[in-house]
């Protein structure tokens, strides 16, 4: 399955941007989220985040390929509403990119398999995991994988307990698994996930979904949401045959261990409200803004 229709990546995204860029981007998003209705100027945003205008503009162009003005538009509170309003049905999206139908979208970037329900019920007993930390475009990133594929992608924030909390949160999902640290392997996985130049159908990213039957069904459905689009919890619930289970779907979305790869950040409320996100609403806005830059190069 895939989370991306094919795009032509820009050279700026061939390498993961410097880790310091996300810290500045994060402050910028937080400022814009408070002040966006006044459409602040570059000078006002720069003053609000405590950075020179030139430094801010350079960081945004490196990180998102967008001018500050375009970036402001991409991360405003109305952006998700626009995604919903402008989103194409999956079939239309497939036709637009010249494919034969929705099933072809599933072959472009991500190949997934679900681990047996028994592995989840056994809390990962007998499962061999490797994990490590690396810098990515959305901050310090934790990758967890098995010999069959990537199983977890999460983020470490100092204000939430840093690496210790991020690792406990992720490995706590499979507490009886054996885990070995491998930061070099993690750096390879993080670069692979966040480098659009490597989003190729002939070299798919292999992932393994480890959860309950219901959670896996939800995560599989999330993989159908194309980059640059959004969907609602109620729509996901309907599509998996559980139209009354929006809350349960929301819980499963929150339990998604593969941030960005399984695009839970593209799920919003009916009104377009971003609602919650396990790794923070600022990061959710950042992901939507980053994807906007990929779809709409400035």
Describe what is shown at a glance.
The protein has 298 residues and is an alpha/beta fold.
Computed CA radius of gyration, to the nearest angstrom? 19 Å
Largest sheet entry: 4 strands, mixed
Structure summary, number of beta strands? 8
Strand content: 5-15%
* Biggest sheet strand line-up: 4-3-2-5
Helicity range: 40-55%
The parts where pLDDT drops under 50 for at least 5 residues are 1-14, 94-108
Pairing-aware structural class of the strands and helices?
Answer: alpha/beta
What would the principal axes of the Cα set say about the shape?
A: globular
How would you characterize the overall build of this protein?
This protein has 14 helices and eight strands. It has 298 residues and is of the alpha/beta class. A hairpin with a 2-residue loop joins strand 2 (128-136) and strand 3 (139-146). Residues 1-14 and 94-108 have low confidence and may be disordered. A four-stranded mixed β-sheet has the order 4-3-2-5. Helix 1 crosses helix 3 (53-64). The longest helix is centred in the N-terminal third of the chain and has 17 residues, at 19-35.
């Amino acid at each position: 399955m895939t989370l991306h229709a094919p795009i032509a990546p820009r050279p700026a995204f061939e390498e993961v941007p410097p880790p310091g860029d996300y810290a500045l981007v994060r402050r910028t998003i937080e400022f814009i989220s408070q002040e966006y209705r006044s459409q602040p100027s570059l000078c006002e945003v720069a003053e609000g985040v405590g950075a020179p205008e030139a430094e801010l503009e350079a960081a945004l162009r490196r990180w998102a390929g967008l001018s500050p003005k375009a970036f402001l538009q991409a991360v405003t509170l109305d952006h998700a509403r626009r995604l919903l309003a402008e989103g194409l049905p999956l079939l239309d999206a497939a036709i637009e990119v010249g494919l034969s139908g929705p099933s072809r979208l599933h072959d472009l970037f991500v190949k997934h398999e679900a681990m047996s329900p028994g592995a989840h019920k056994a809390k990962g007993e007998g499962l061999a995991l490797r994990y490590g930390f690396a810098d990515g475009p959305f901050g310090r990133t934790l990758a967890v994988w098995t010999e069959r594929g990537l199983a977890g992608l999460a983020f470490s924030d100092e204000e939430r307990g840093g690496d210790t909390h991020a690792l406990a949160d992720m490995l706590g999902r499979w507490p009886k698994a054996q885990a070995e640290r491998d930061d070099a392997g993690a750096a390879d996985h993080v670069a692979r996930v966040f480098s659009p130049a490597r989003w190729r159908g002939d070299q798919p990213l292999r992932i393994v979904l480890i959860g309950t039957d219901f959670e896996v069904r939800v995560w599989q459905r999330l993989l159908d949401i194309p980059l640059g689009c959004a969907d609602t919890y109620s729509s996901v619930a309907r599509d998996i045959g559980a139209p009354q289970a929006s809350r349960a779907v929301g819980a499963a979305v929150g339990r998604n261990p593969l941030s960005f790869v399984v695009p839970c950040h593209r799920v919003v409320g009916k009104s377009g409200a971003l609602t919650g996100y396990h790794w923070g609403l600022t990061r959710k806005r950042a992901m939507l803004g980053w994807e906007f830059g990929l779809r709409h190069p400035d």
